[in-house]
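Good morning C.,

I know you're traveling, so I'll keep this short. The sequence:
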Amino acid sequence: MARFDRNLWRKFVPNLASSKKHQRKSEAAAIRNRAQRAELRTALKKAKSTEATDDVRLAATRLLDRAARKGLIHQNTAARHKSKLARAK
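The tokens, ready to paste straight into the viewer:
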């Protein structure tokens, strides 16, 4: 979370209350998405390692499914990663 520049969004200060709320929501979503994407990348790296167990691969698959369902990554991207993990067994 330290890498995210909160002042980046403050360059354009909205006037309307609804626009201010939208800006707050966008900032929160960006921080949340960055954390979830980092967690997903870490899980994929662990699952692709040679000493990965089935539990680790299953956890990575669940994260991929959730990320695709939430719109964090595209469904085809999730399917491609899942297929690659299944072939690596």
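Safe travels,
E.
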